[in-house]
Amino acid sequence: MYRRTAGAILFALYATHAGALHAELDPGKADDIKTLLRLMRSTDVGLQFAETKVDYVLVYARKAKPQLPVTAFNQIKQEVIGEVEQKLWVPGGLAERLVAIWDKEFTHTEIKQLLEFYESPLGRKLVAATPLLTREARAVGKRWGKEMEPLIADRVRAKLALLE
After folding, report:
1. What is the DSSP secondary structure assignment for residue 157, as one 8-state letter?
2. How far is it, in rounded angstroms, from Cα 35 to Cα 114?
């Protein structure tokens, strides 16, 4: 009983403290983080996720309504993606949630230093190259993972055989 009570008190203190820290977010720092997120195109991941979800739903919609033209589904996709895009930057949207994360991890000075980098030619080049780098790294990682499958399977089988 004592442990539960102590745990509840500690949780309440932590939650109150964490809430107070978030409530004290400097508006200037929040604005700088939002600028950084825009420069880094951080919300693109949210759009990519939404696009994947819409495509998934539309596969079933096409099966349910095969009489509709492809253009209708394309229009639906564009409208839904547009709606999601608008919600990225509204209060409670993805960007605001990302601001809270960045606020915890970086000081305002560090955010300003990151802004300097991402506003530089090298920073802009990194942002432009990131989607390609990510795609290529994912493909390389997938191939490497396939190459490792036999090794992993052999090692697991060998270790399990020792336990028998």
Report:
1. H
2. 10
Whether 47 contacts 93, CB under 8 Å:
no
- pLDDT, one tens digit per residue, over 6-58 is 444 544 444 444 444 445 789 999 999 999 999 999 888 888 889 999 999 99
Contact in structure between 82 and 112 (CB atoms under 8 Å): no
Residue with the bigger pLDDT between 9 and 118: it is 118
Give the span between the Cα atoms of 34 and 96, in whole angstroms.
8
User: In degrees, to the nearest 5, what angle opens at C-alpha 89 toward C-alphas 19 and 137?
Assistant: 95
Residue 92 tokens read as 């409670």
- Rounded to 5°, angle at Cα 85 from 58 and 73: 20
8 Å CB contact between 119 and 112:
no
> For residue 91, what pLDDT is reported?
92
Burial class (CB in 10 A: 0-12, 13-18, 19+), 73: middle
Is the pLDDT reported for residue 78 higher than 60?
yes
Instruction: Tell me what pLDDT residue 23 has.
Output: 56
Structure tokens at 161: 């055989």
Give the Cβ contact number of residue 25 at 10 Å.
14
pTM of the model: 0.67
Distance CA 106, CA 137 (A): 27
Tokens of 119: 């506003």
